[in-house]
Amino acid sequence: MEIIIQPDAAAANALAARLFAKLIRKKEKCVLGMATGSTPLALYRELIAMDLDWRKVTTFNLDEYVGLAPEHLQSYHRFMWENLFRRVNIAKKNIHIPDGLAKGIPVFCAKYEKQIRAAGGIDLQLLGIGTDGHIGFNEPTSSLTSRTRIKTLTPQTRKDNARFFGSEDAVPHHVITMGIGTIMEARHCVLLAFGKNKARAIAEAVEGPITAMNPASALQMHSKVTVFLDEAAASKLKLTAYYRWVYDSKPDWQKI
Ligand code: PGA
Fold this sequence. Notes:
Blueprint: E1 2-6, H1 9-26, E2 31-34, H2 41-49, E3 58-61, E4 63-65, H3 76-83, E5 95-96, H4 105-118, E6 124-127, E7 149-152, H5 155-165, E8 174-177, H6 180-184, E9 188-193, H7 199-207, E10 225-230, H8 240-248
Parallel strand pairs: 1-10, 2-3, 2-6, 3-5, 6-9, 9-10
Antiparallel strand pairs: 4-8, 7-8
Bound molecules: 2-phosphoglycolic acid.
2-phosphoglycolic acid binds near residues 39, 128, 129 and 130.
């Protein structure tokens, strides 16, 4: 894992955006894994401002709430459309987001996995992290080899996401999420975390044991992960001086 600590979220997002832009410019038909929530918003704004050519880019989103129609204000379809897709020249047919209204969920999930494989796999997967260590909506105790499937949200996640829905009661209980095994097959994972409330989950994921109790810790087994943090999210890590030294001493060819 490469741990990059920046003074604030804006600086971290600007750097992460450069990684995405570099890939979009270099690989015409790249496949991106997209995330939702508060964390990726500034990164999406950076990418929009870069005026990249998205015509041949294919995307797969991590997750969606079961029971929410694409036009529902809190659906991740709507989130992606408002915050990224309607502002870039991506082709609609290249956008994939789990269908919250899918009738046969297992069949839908198997098809989603197949579509990812048919696209050639995910080149760059964007990830946020839950306060409980979830990636996608893979809650604690998720199988570390899981595939796209239905999951039940923990009370903690429903509480964390109540801010979007107005009340905790309105937050759906079920979601469709890429599995940890699915995420682990992406060629490069970029994990973003900002703010003090992510510090514990980040410390466990990066420096703790690999455990299904912190699903993000599975990324320790991935060969290419870049973690972008602000100072607050990095505040519970032990080896911060080392991470900073490694980053500051990089040869030019390794820089983003
Ligand atoms: P957040 O969610 O970006 O809204 O904090 C992250 C996540 O739950 O993965």
